[in-house]
Amino acid sequence: MTPSVDSPSGPPRQTRVRQTIEQLRARILGGEWPLGAKIPTEPQLVEALGVGRNTVREAVKALVHAGVLECRQGSGTYVVSTDELAGAVGRRLTDARMSEVVEVRRAFEVEAARLAALRRTPDDLAALDRALAAREAAWRTGRAEAFVEADADLHVAIVAAAHNAMLAELYASVGGALRDTVAHAIGPDLTPERYVDHGRLVAAIRAGDPDRAADEAGAFLEAPTGA
């Protein structure tokens, strides 16, 4: 009989746990278990991964602690993030004061706007125009949820125009948490006093003016209700 992976002749316990975590992570990132999906039960994972129950339990617990998975009593374990950094940052931003969250947004978005003004391409400008038009259209619908998503899409387009892969990856990691802060600032109803024009920001990027773009990006983040 062939020894199981968890047998004394197999690899050390912590090595098995790390390998199992990587296997679970690979299946999540590969789309086998997409965001919001329920992962297989513990016995099913034991059979599929060829490791012992305790190894599976520790690996799942590690990903729960990292914010990638969430155990729901009586229901199962679900994928709540595809990125461990996003999960950790999301938890941290949930507990942070609004002023701290605004400072984090400034750190990303002001520099992204400055770089976008220096590096934007014709394709970037077209994407910004589309995102800005969609944001305006979403505002006119009066639906806060639609507007928050459209606002986030515009900021993602600005970050993409900065052409800094690390900045884009980090921004994606905190994007969900920052979107929640925008929703909080906007509230359930779109009222005129909460509207923030982003046309000047896009115009500054189009003009290739990094200082003005940075100023425009920072200006709407000064106010706690800025989106």
From TrEMBL:
| SMART domains the UniProt entry points to | FCD (SM00895), HTH_GNTR (SM00345)
Annotated ranges, domain HTH gntR-type: 14-82
Q: Which UniProt keywords apply?
A: DNA-binding, Transcription, Transcription regulation
> Keyword Kinase: yes or no?
no
For whether the record's keyword set contains GTP-binding, the answer is no
Q: What Gene3D superfamilies does the record point to?
A: GntR ligand-binding domain-like, Winged helix-like DNA-binding domain superfamily/Winged helix DNA-binding domain
Q: Which domain of life is it from?
A: Bacteria
This protein is called what? FCD domain-containing protein
